[in-house]
Amino acid sequence: MTQEEQIEKTKIFVKETLKNAEGGHDWFHILRVFNNCSLISEKEEVDAFVVKLGALLHDIADSKFHNGDETVGPKLARDFLNIIQVEKEVVDHVIQIIENISYNSSLDPSKTFKSPELDVIQDADRLDALGAIGIARTFNYGGFKNRAIYNPDILPDLNMSKEAYKKSTAPTINHFYEKLLLLKDLMNTKTGKQIAAERHEFMEQYLEQFYAEWEGEK
């Protein structure tokens, strides 16, 4: 089986696996990340095959939807990649990407794995949490979890541990300060940083408008 055939089989597998996923972590999220990877990779020296597989499988079983179990996604991905006979070295690399890509992994000091391929996929994934789409995904997930939109009495926690972040039930607006507005300075690649800066500015403008409407000023 050629690499192109393995990529196509992976797309079919992911699309089927995520057909009932929450709207911010569904097949279209994967497709946007996949496309972001293509854009960023144009100026990065990476293994394109690893990037494509990692992008497609990075959210195959997000721990948020599996009782916080971070082993489900890597196991599901490994089992599938073995079935389509991807080389072991590539499989191991993709699994390490899946295990280290999330924002809450960046809050875990024990996570030390790095690679150019992870840098690209991580940037591509973080870009989808920024800008207009990032705002839409944030409120979609907040609604999915039945969280308040905003409560001025509940301030953002800017010093959360990984476990506190995973267990947070704070209003959705707080998520902008606890994660989204921090992503711009966490980007790995030059292209990722440029795109993130534009999307970051859009979110700041949105928040300014939000508070003005909340207070009845506009």
UniProtKB/TrEMBL annotation:
InterPro entries: HD/PDEase_dom, HD_domain. Residues 26-130 form the HD domain. It comes from Formosa maritima. It comes from the Bacteria. Pfam families: HD (PF01966). This is HD domain-containing protein.
